[in-house]
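so the lab meeting is tmrw and i was supposed to have these ready like two days ago... anyway. pasting both below. for each one the top line is the aa sequence and the line under it is the C-alpha coordinates. i havent really looked at them closely yet so no promises
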Amino acid sequence: MTDEVPASAPDVPEGPEDLAAPAAPAAPAPLGLVRTPTGHAGVDARLERLADADHLTADGHVEVYEDVHGGLRDALTALDAPPVPGPYENRS
Protein backbone atom coordinates (compact mmCIF):
# COMPACT_ATOMS: atom_id res chain seq x y z
CA MET A 1 0.00 0.00 0.00
CA THR A 2 1.19 3.51 -0.76
CA ASP A 3 0.22 6.91 0.56
CA GLU A 4 -0.08 8.50 -2.86
CA VAL A 5 -2.81 11.07 -3.50
CA PRO A 6 -5.07 10.10 -6.40
CA ALA A 7 -4.70 12.19 -9.55
CA SER A 8 -8.27 13.48 -9.28
CA ALA A 9 -8.78 14.97 -5.85
CA PRO A 10 -12.30 15.97 -4.80
CA ASP A 11 -13.40 19.54 -5.51
CA VAL A 12 -12.36 21.61 -2.53
CA PRO A 13 -12.69 25.40 -2.54
CA GLU A 14 -9.26 26.93 -2.93
CA GLY A 15 -9.86 30.66 -2.81
CA PRO A 16 -12.47 33.29 -1.95
CA GLU A 17 -13.88 33.25 -5.50
CA ASP A 18 -14.83 29.59 -4.99
CA LEU A 19 -16.82 30.49 -1.85
CA ALA A 20 -19.02 33.08 -3.62
CA ALA A 21 -22.79 32.58 -3.50
CA PRO A 22 -24.25 30.72 -6.48
CA ALA A 23 -25.59 32.87 -9.29
CA ALA A 24 -29.30 33.70 -9.29
CA PRO A 25 -31.40 31.63 -11.72
CA ALA A 26 -32.05 33.19 -15.10
CA ALA A 27 -35.37 34.93 -15.67
CA PRO A 28 -38.05 33.04 -17.63
CA ALA A 29 -37.58 33.37 -21.37
CA PRO A 30 -39.82 32.28 -24.26
CA LEU A 31 -38.71 29.14 -26.08
CA GLY A 32 -39.64 30.65 -29.43
CA LEU A 33 -41.79 27.72 -30.53
CA VAL A 34 -44.11 28.33 -33.45
CA ARG A 35 -47.70 27.21 -32.93
CA THR A 36 -49.31 26.16 -36.19
CA PRO A 37 -53.05 26.89 -36.34
CA THR A 38 -55.23 23.79 -36.50
CA GLY A 39 -58.27 25.47 -38.06
CA HIS A 40 -60.41 24.67 -35.01
CA ALA A 41 -61.00 27.90 -33.07
CA GLY A 42 -61.34 26.23 -29.66
CA VAL A 43 -58.16 24.18 -30.05
CA ASP A 44 -56.21 27.13 -31.43
CA ALA A 45 -57.23 29.30 -28.48
CA ARG A 46 -56.00 26.64 -26.04
CA LEU A 47 -52.71 26.25 -27.87
CA GLU A 48 -52.20 30.02 -27.78
CA ARG A 49 -52.73 29.85 -24.01
CA LEU A 50 -49.50 27.85 -23.83
CA ALA A 51 -47.65 31.09 -24.63
CA ASP A 52 -48.61 32.31 -21.13
CA ALA A 53 -46.18 29.76 -19.68
CA ASP A 54 -43.29 31.44 -21.52
CA HIS A 55 -43.25 34.27 -19.00
CA LEU A 56 -43.70 32.21 -15.83
CA THR A 57 -41.23 30.36 -13.68
CA ALA A 58 -41.45 26.57 -13.82
CA ASP A 59 -43.74 26.34 -10.78
CA GLY A 60 -46.30 28.52 -12.60
CA HIS A 61 -46.47 26.23 -15.63
CA VAL A 62 -48.72 23.67 -13.93
CA GLU A 63 -51.75 25.96 -13.87
CA VAL A 64 -51.38 26.83 -17.56
CA TYR A 65 -50.83 23.20 -18.61
CA GLU A 66 -53.82 21.99 -16.60
CA ASP A 67 -56.03 24.68 -18.13
CA VAL A 68 -54.90 23.81 -21.67
CA HIS A 69 -55.26 20.08 -21.04
CA GLY A 70 -58.80 20.54 -19.70
CA GLY A 71 -59.80 22.66 -22.68
CA LEU A 72 -58.37 20.21 -25.19
CA ARG A 73 -60.06 17.31 -23.40
CA ASP A 74 -63.40 19.18 -23.59
CA ALA A 75 -62.88 19.81 -27.32
CA LEU A 76 -62.24 16.10 -27.92
CA THR A 77 -65.26 15.11 -25.82
CA ALA A 78 -67.44 17.46 -27.87
CA LEU A 79 -66.46 15.56 -31.01
CA ASP A 80 -68.11 12.43 -29.58
CA ALA A 81 -71.37 14.18 -28.71
CA PRO A 82 -74.33 13.49 -31.01
CA PRO A 83 -75.27 16.41 -33.25
CA VAL A 84 -77.97 18.70 -31.92
CA PRO A 85 -80.94 18.81 -34.30
CA GLY A 86 -81.79 22.18 -35.79
CA PRO A 87 -85.19 23.84 -35.11
CA TYR A 88 -86.79 22.31 -38.20
CA GLU A 89 -85.22 18.87 -37.97
CA ASN A 90 -87.42 17.55 -35.17
CA ARG A 91 -89.75 15.12 -36.94
CA SER A 92 -91.70 13.57 -34.11
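ok protien two:
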Amino acid sequence: MCLCVEGVAYGADPVCSQTWFANASPDTPEASSVLSTVSFHATISVGALVGGLALDRSSPSAVMLFGAATAALVVLITAGHRGSGTVRMPA
Protein backbone atom coordinates (compact mmCIF):
# COMPACT_ATOMS: atom_id res chain seq x y z
CA MET A 1 0.00 0.00 0.00
CA CYS A 2 2.75 2.47 0.93
CA LEU A 3 4.53 1.71 -2.32
CA CYS A 4 1.39 2.58 -4.27
CA VAL A 5 0.98 5.85 -2.36
CA GLU A 6 4.62 6.72 -3.02
CA GLY A 7 4.24 5.92 -6.71
CA VAL A 8 1.18 8.14 -7.06
CA ALA A 9 2.83 10.98 -5.13
CA TYR A 10 6.08 10.69 -7.08
CA GLY A 11 4.19 10.63 -10.37
CA ALA A 12 1.95 13.56 -9.43
CA ASP A 13 4.76 15.79 -8.16
CA PRO A 14 6.09 17.01 -11.53
CA VAL A 15 2.58 17.62 -12.85
CA CYS A 16 1.46 19.51 -9.75
CA SER A 17 4.60 21.59 -9.40
CA GLN A 18 4.63 22.53 -13.08
CA THR A 19 0.98 23.56 -12.83
CA TRP A 20 1.71 25.70 -9.77
CA PHE A 21 4.68 27.36 -11.44
CA ALA A 22 2.68 28.00 -14.64
CA ASN A 23 -0.17 29.56 -12.66
CA ALA A 24 2.30 31.72 -10.73
CA SER A 25 3.83 33.12 -13.92
CA PRO A 26 1.31 32.87 -16.75
CA ASP A 27 3.21 35.32 -18.98
CA THR A 28 6.41 33.25 -19.05
CA PRO A 29 5.58 29.56 -19.57
CA GLU A 30 9.14 28.66 -20.63
CA ALA A 31 10.64 30.10 -17.46
CA SER A 32 8.10 28.33 -15.27
CA SER A 33 8.88 25.02 -17.01
CA VAL A 34 12.61 25.48 -16.40
CA LEU A 35 12.01 26.46 -12.78
CA SER A 36 9.87 23.36 -12.28
CA THR A 37 12.59 21.10 -13.69
CA VAL A 38 15.37 22.76 -11.69
CA SER A 39 13.43 22.57 -8.42
CA PHE A 40 12.61 18.90 -9.01
CA HIS A 41 16.26 17.99 -9.61
CA ALA A 42 17.48 20.17 -6.75
CA THR A 43 15.08 18.41 -4.38
CA ILE A 44 16.34 14.99 -5.43
CA SER A 45 19.96 16.14 -5.08
CA VAL A 46 19.48 17.61 -1.63
CA GLY A 47 17.60 14.49 -0.50
CA ALA A 48 20.43 12.26 -1.73
CA LEU A 49 23.03 14.43 0.00
CA VAL A 50 21.18 14.55 3.32
CA GLY A 51 20.39 10.83 3.14
CA GLY A 52 24.03 9.99 2.39
CA LEU A 53 25.30 12.15 5.24
CA ALA A 54 22.75 10.64 7.62
CA LEU A 55 23.78 7.14 6.56
CA ASP A 56 27.47 7.94 7.06
CA ARG A 57 26.79 9.14 10.60
CA SER A 58 24.19 6.57 11.67
CA SER A 59 22.46 3.38 10.51
CA PRO A 60 20.12 2.53 7.64
CA SER A 61 17.17 2.30 10.02
CA ALA A 62 17.90 5.83 11.28
CA VAL A 63 17.84 7.07 7.69
CA MET A 64 14.44 5.44 7.17
CA LEU A 65 13.11 7.05 10.35
CA PHE A 66 14.49 10.42 9.24
CA GLY A 67 12.79 10.02 5.85
CA ALA A 68 9.49 9.06 7.48
CA ALA A 69 9.68 12.06 9.82
CA THR A 70 10.39 14.35 6.88
CA ALA A 71 7.45 12.93 4.92
CA ALA A 72 5.15 13.34 7.92
CA LEU A 73 6.29 16.95 8.33
CA VAL A 74 5.58 17.67 4.65
CA VAL A 75 2.10 16.13 4.97
CA LEU A 76 1.36 18.29 8.03
CA ILE A 77 2.61 21.45 6.32
CA THR A 78 0.64 20.68 3.16
CA ALA A 79 -2.53 19.86 5.10
CA GLY A 80 -2.19 23.07 7.11
CA HIS A 81 -1.80 25.24 4.03
CA ARG A 82 -5.06 26.75 2.91
CA GLY A 83 -4.96 28.34 -0.53
CA SER A 84 -7.59 30.63 -1.97
CA GLY A 85 -8.93 27.75 -4.04
CA THR A 86 -9.14 29.85 -7.17
CA VAL A 87 -6.87 29.84 -10.16
CA ARG A 88 -6.53 33.04 -12.11
CA MET A 89 -6.17 32.58 -15.82
CA PRO A 90 -4.66 35.26 -18.04
CA ALA A 91 -7.15 37.45 -19.88
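from a quick look at the 2nd one: The chain has a mean pLDDT of 81. DSSP finds three helices and no strands in the chain. will dig more after coffe
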